[in-house]
Design a protein that fits this description.
- This protein is α/β, with parallel strands linked by helices.
- The chain has 2 domains: 70-141, Ribosomal protein L30/S12 (60s Ribosomal Protein L30, Chain: A); 149-315, Alpha/beta knot, CATH 3.40.1280.10.
- The chain is 35% helix and 16% strand.
- It has helices at 29-32, 48-60, 75-83, 101-112, 122-129, 149-157, 174-186, 204-209, 225-234, 273-278, 296-315; strands spanning 70-73, 90-94, 117-120, 137-141, 164-169, 191-195, 219-222, 238-242, 248-249, 260-265, 281-284.
- Helix 7 (174-186) links the parallel strand 5 and strand 6 (191-195).
- Helix 3 runs parallel beside helix 4 (101-112) and helix 7 (174-186) packs parallel to helix 11 (296-315).
- This is TrmH family tRNA/rRNA methyltransferase.
């Protein structure tokens, strides 16, 4: 008789003589099913993009969060900001970042302007910027300090010449805003007014496009552009809406002898209906027939240049 080695018959394979092995009865079926597509980053409550989505919704609903500092990242953008004299509170550099001419130039300019230079760990810079595309350098820019419309009107009264302002309606590109600020400053205007909602704001991009003029020309935010138009009218301003099909053209309107506000809409949407209805005059820019419209900043430059010319003639 053969011997079985081991204890308790450990070497014997047991079999179930009564049929197939029982299953789970479908109790683990759900565990084997797919969980569906991965939610978008903005829908995951722990993701930074979810916070950005909530902030965007708050802005669109009119409930603004407190203005926060902006971080400009990348070697070329940082250099451009410093050359444009964008105000900055500090320069952050990741420890161990490879040095080159641009990094050395940024450090030299910050030293000249007494801007603090701080070294941080890479993971900390990733957290501050929300991504790893910072190239080891970031420039922190404080929130822009917007002026008040009443203050702008009061300050303009102190000048010997008539006041001239630009109101932007439906302008969402910060480069357009920066270019308009630059034109208003170049042609003797006294300020720019933008809506609080659905509008570009004075960010680092707008600062750079303005070529530093945003540091000297005031920009105000208005809760309601229609009411702001009426506010200027009560202060003795003629409000001119820039739009196609107006009763005046740039050739026939005299903007050199009185207080004037120029309302400019986006190239696509134009001026909002209520704002248009509250303008004193609607004016268009004569141009070649086959060109449909002008970019907002180009249109602003054309009108401001002509009004500045009229004012120079009126002074003589």
């Amino acid at each position: 008789m053969a011997r079985i080695h081991g204890r308790g018959g450990a070497g014997v394979r047991k079999t179930n003589k009564k049929g197939a092995i029982k299953g789970t009865g479908g109790q683990k079926k759900k565990g084997l099913e797919g969980k569906g597509p991965t939610p978008k980053a903005e829908d995951r409550v722990y993701h930074a993009k979810h916070k950005a989505k909530l902030a965007r919704e708050r802005r669109n609903s009119g409930r603004h969060q407190k203005e926060t500092a902006e971080m400009v990242v990348g070697r070329n953008p940082v250099i451009e900001c410093l050359h444009a004299r964008v105000p900055a509170t500090s320069l952050y550099i990741v420890q161990g970042t490879r040095n080159d001419e641009r990094l050395s130039e940024a450090v030299a300019m910050c030293n000249t302007r007494n801007i603090p230079i701080l070294e941080v760990q890479r993971h900390e810079m990733d957290r501050m910027t929300g991504n790893g595309l910072h190239q080891g350098i970031g420039l922190q820019i404080p929130p822009y300090k917007y002026a008040d419309v009443d203050t702008l009107i009061d300050e303009a009264r102190k000048n010997d010449e008539p006041g001239m302002f630009v109101i932007l309606d439906n302008i969402t590109d910060p480069r357009n805003l920066g270019a308009v600020i630059r034109s208003v400053a170049a042609f003797g205007g006294h300020g720019v007014i933008i809506p609080e909602r659905r509008s570009a704001s004075v960010t680092a991009v707008a600062w750079r496009t303005s070529a530093g003029t945003a540091a000297r020309l005031p920009v105000a935010r208005a809760t309601n552009i229609t009411r702001t138009v009426q506010q200027f009218q009560k202060a003795g301003y003629q409000v001119v809406g820039l739009d196609a099909g107006g009763e005046h053209t740039l050739d026939t309107y005299d903007g050199g002898t009185e207080n004037v506000v120029i309302v400019i809409g986006s190239e696509g949407k134009g001026i909002s209906r209520l704002v248009r209805e509250n303008c004193d005059q609607i004016m268009s820019i004569p141009m070649t027939a086959w060109v449909e419209s002008l970019n907002a900043s180009v249109a602003a430059g054309a009108v401001l240049s002509e009004f500045a010319r009229q004012r120079r003639i009126a002074k003589k």
